[in-house]
Amino acid sequence: MRPEGIQWTPPAQAENDPRPPTQWRRILALFRPYSGRLTVVGLLVAASAVVSVTTPFLLRAVLDTAIPQSRTGLLTVLVLGMVATAVVNSVFSVLQTLISTTVGQRVMHDLRTAVYSHLQRMSLAFFTRTRTGEVQSRIANDIGGMQSTVTSTATSLVSNFTAVVASVVAMVALDWRLTVVSLLLLPLFVWISRRVGNERKKITGERQKQLAAMSSAVQESLSVSGILLGRTMGRSDSLSREFTGQSDRLADLEVRASMAGRWRMNTIQIVMAAMPAVIYWAAGMTAAGGAPIVSVGTLVAFVSLQQGLFRPTVSLLSTGVQVQTSLALFQRIFEYLDLTVEIDEPEHPVTLGEIRGEVRFEGVDFRYDPGQERPTLGGVDLRIPAGGSLAVVGATGSGKTTLSYLVPRLYDVTGGRVTIDGVDVRELSFDTLARAVGVVSQETYLFHASVADNLRFAKPDATEEELVAAARAARIHDTVAALPDGYDTLVGERGYRFSGGEKQRLALARTILRNPPVLILDEATSALDNSTERAVQEAIDTLAEGRTTITVAHRLSTVRAADQIAVLERGEVAELGTHEQLLAADGRYAALLRRESPVTAVAP
């Protein structure tokens, strides 16, 4: 029996979760391989900050010395120096952008490939519990949403922080009293930006969940199968309304995310924009009471520095908000990277050279859930000699498919063991297991690619002659050759350009190319009509010659020639024998046969 599929959801994270420091360490670790390039960026940023703060001093010299004293030569040098600082800063900015964007894109690449590779190692059980759209959303939307953070935020933080420090130092050098006035409200601004960041982080988590739900709905309802089902069930309008509702919820979240803390951040900008006026007022008030505390040149230079301070300060606060928002995305990615790999390659994998193909089930127990009261399989003992055939039959939910999936390690036993040539499949390398076992299931999957590309998925270096030979063996060559583009014909999404029987034969041809010594046939003909079933069965018979074959049978007429037939009942082997032996015993197998075809059950 297969488990009921439920959507996987991560554990809730409390607001006082102690993990943020660990999360920061993990985020910083993503950039560690590129520390050399980031060091160069840091040096460029520092140089740019030093060059930038020289401009106000040059301006002071222009206003206080060069112009009042009519020193045209000095004025020319000072003006050229101001132009030179702008040119140098522009060059530094381009180099910073190039290096930081390259590093950011490499980090994005590393994250995407890490998540994809980790998901490739997850067991089949994970994918039965998780919607495909949810997985796609983590890779596309969540990682994509972090692009601006990982490509520009690090540089922006360093650049703005350096600019702030350099500006403060220069302002103190000009006049420490005006500097104190300028920085009085800075702690309040930092506190406000942190509050806004936490608020946006929470909304971003909700938005990404809604994006995942909408991606799942699109993936399910706009696939070929989804369109067929929606139209034949008259649910197209209903699906459109559901999608409209989801899109509307996403739009609301986008507005909330955009407006969260907007007034507070704008208040900061208003106050900072008003600060030059405050400085002019303070300087004017002191001048009204006596001698001015600073010269006009110093005052203009200070205000210029102050503007140079406020711009990076606002940017730094905004970047801090963006970083806090991105933490929600990093958290969702790390949740996937932290998923336990239930079926992994052994530490010291066994590699088999020539594989004979003897398969044994030795006291096999299996549960989908550790808390499952009754095992799906219990105490199964079976032996299929190399080149032999076993048919597994039984009522729906008796554990037939589960039993067959234990051989290629799509699931791992919870008790006993399954062996190939005497070696526990859990000890075999994945490469050996892939070479040893081929699976042809009822639900055939074909990529949206050409026939040749679909076949070569089993053997990328297969020649044209090998493709044709495999297709002939699967009784599908004539059909493919008759197509206008032959083996270059696109099969369409999930192979919808071909009939069910043609898709099955293409899947068989793909398996023939793989040439596995052990073959699993999971109800490969149960969904086909009689004439198509006969054509596919001929291809299966060709494929099974000389191979160890385990057939999960829905139609008992297809298993009469098997060397052994195992009847499963509630996960246990109730009967075992040949067709004739089981028919003579007049037990469960005979009862199943009578229900399928009373005429067939009479004759041995």
- Classify the helix fraction into a percent range: 55-70%
Q: What is the structural class?
A: alpha/beta
Strand order, main sheet: write it out.
6-7-8-3-9-10
Total helices: the number is 22
Keywords: ATP-binding, Membrane, Nucleotide-binding, Transmembrane, Transmembrane helix
Domain ABC transporter: 359-595
Region (Disordered): 1-20
Protein name: ABC transporter ATP-binding protein
Q: Key terms for this structure?
A:
604 residues, alpha/beta, 6-stranded mixed β-sheet, 4-stranded antiparallel β-sheet, 10 strands, 9% strand, disordered N terminus, disordered C terminus, ABC transporter ATP-binding protein, nucleotide-binding
What's a quick, concise take on this entry?
With 604 residues, the chain is of the alpha/beta class. It has helices spanning 20-31, 35-66, 72-120, 124-129, 132-145, 147-174, 176-183, 186-221, 224-232, 236-259, 262-288, 296-337, 400-405, 430-436, 451-456, 464-473, 477-481, 500-514, 530-544, 579-585, 588-596, 598-602; strands spanning 359-366, 377-384, 389-394, 415-420, 423-424, 437-441, 518-522, 548-552, 564-569, 572-577. Strands 6-7-8-3-9-10 form a 6-stranded mixed sheet. A 4-stranded antiparallel sheet has the order 2-1-4-5, with no helix packed on it.
